[in-house]
Amino acid sequence: MNSSYNKLVNNLEYLKLKQMLVHLDETIDFMTNNQLSFTETLIKLTDYEIDMKEVNMVKSMVKVGAFPHLKEVKDFDFDFQPTINKQQILDFTTLRFIEQKENIVFLGTSGVGKTHLATAIGIAAAKKRTSTYFIKCNDLILNLKRAKLENRLENRLKHYAKYKLLIIDELCKASHNSSYGKLLIM
Ligand SMILES: Nc1ncnc2c1ncn2[C@@H]1O[C@H](COP(=O)(O)OP(=O)(O)O)[C@@H](O)[C@H]1O
Ligand SMILES: [Mg+2]
After folding, report:
1. How far is the CA of 81 from the centre of ligand 1 (A)?
2. C-alpha dist (Å) from residue 21 to 28, 35, 51
3. pTM of the model
4. What is the pLDDT of residue 168?
5. DSSP bridge partners of 135
6. 134 C-alpha to center of ligand 2: Å?
7. Which residues share a beta bridge with 89?
8. What protein residues have CB closer than 5 angstroms to ion ligand 2?
């Protein structure tokens, strides 16, 4: 038993299955106390590894998303902003609008929570493993202008188009910047 246990520990270490290693003893105890089958035990043990993989995947999607902060819908005080329909925002976080190929536009004066809610929807999307990217309109335009000068506009457009959800913040600020000419917002 002891030598086979050690062999199993070595195998898990070699395969870099760290979570299975960390939870090995408690899973063996749980198996004994609850008379789990071999298959049930293996499912329980591998689930620890899968759970951690999921957490890391979400973390990296949130990182790739380049959100300005990690504010979520739960951090938004809807009582403070009664004109915003909470149900509608919650519906946005289901990502139904992406399936239905709809766009969302938040309009409102400064400080009312547009960036907060857009980020919250983006984080909800990243958590559902939907590729998401957050960018300020100014930066988007500058990047596209630079790409055009360097003859790689098409590639750059393809890059942005590959995201399932592209959040473009501060559209109105960009439209006020005269160096771009006129920006048509539809
Ligand atoms: N109803 C709200 N509940 C919680 N925080 C809010 C609310 N409205 C705004 N905030 C916070 O106030 C700040 C400004 O909001 P922001 O989303 O940047 O506004 P906007 O993009 O509309 O100018 C942010 O830190 C945001 O989290
Ligand atoms: Mg904003």
Report:
1. 10
2. 11, 20, 14
3. 0.80
4. 97
5. 168
6. 12
7. none
8. 114-115
What is the token pair recorded at 153? 């506009």
Token pair 């898990």 in the structure block, residue: 12
How many angstroms separate the alpha carbon of residue 111 from the centre of ligand 1?
A: 5
What pLDDT score does 175 carry?
63
Alpha-carbon gap, residue 146 to 20, rounded angstroms: 48
- Per-residue pLDDT of 112-129, as tens digits, reads 999 999 999 999 999 999
| Per-residue pLDDT tens over the stretch 40-93 | 999 999 999 999 999 998 899 889 999 999 999 999 999 999 999 999 999 999
Which ligand 1 atom is nearest residue 112's CA? 22
Q: Which residues, at least 6 apart from 117, have a Cβ–Cβ distance to it below 8 Å?
A: 73, 76, 84, 89, 106
Residue from 81, 104, 116, 173 to probe ligand 1 pocket by mutation (most atoms less than 8 Å from CB): 116
